[in-house]
Amino acid sequence: MSSDGSLIEHPTEPHITPWLSTLRRYLLVVVSGMLIWETLHLPLYTIWREGTTGELVFAVVHCTGGDVLIALSSLVLSLMLLGTRNWPSRRYVPVAALTIIFGISYTIFSEWLNIVVRESWAYSDFMPIIPVIDTGLSPVAQWVVVPLIAFWWARQLRSEHPATIAQAKIVPLRRSSHVKS
Questions:
Q1: Distance from chain centroid for Cα 39
Q2: 128 and which of 135, 137, 166, 167 could share a cystine (Cβ 3.0–4.6 Å)?
Q3: Is the pLDDT score of 1 beyond 60?
Q4: How many other CB atoms sit within 10 Å of the CB of residue 72?
Q5: What's the gap between Cα 131 and its chain centre?
Q6: Pairing of strands 135-136, 129-130
Q7: pLDDT at residue 95 above 80?
């Protein structure tokens, strides 16, 4: 609502600011992409051979949920550090890059913690290992590929349907004739 009591309406996306629609599109791709990736790289972990169907389903759902939380936390932290009040129109690429760096960094830490320290999961012989950091290639690649696609897709759709204040239509609020002032 503007200072004069009217609603600001965007012609292509009513009542949705550009950052919110971008975030929604990013999140849609992240959820879908992480779910697909978690399902497809299960054979790279020992649970594929050792787990029951229920354990495999739980692992995919649990890991996808964790991935979504990591993606959102990484994005929020990146926005706090590099974002501007008119993001995504400005500083889109630096925010995206830092988000991906945070996601990769957390993944490397989490793989080490859960494989080496806690021993709560293990790689199968099929998992390619990145030398020096001894982390699986698939989880690291996941945090490059899925967010890159998500940021690219969110930006493509945003640029096709710009909803800026300059294009906004001001709609005055009307009082109902049966309501007393």
A1: 18
A2: 137
A3: no
A4: 15
A5: 28
A6: antiparallel
A7: yes
Q: Do 23 and 1 form a contact (C-beta atoms < 8 A)?
A: no
Cα 70 from Cα 81, distance rounded (Å): 16
pTM: 0.77
The tokens of 46 are what? 């020992």
Measured in degrees and rounded to the nearest 5, phi and psi for residue 131 equal -60, 160
Per-residue pLDDT tens digits for 130-152: 999 999 999 999 999 999 999 99
Output the average pLDDT for the chain: 85
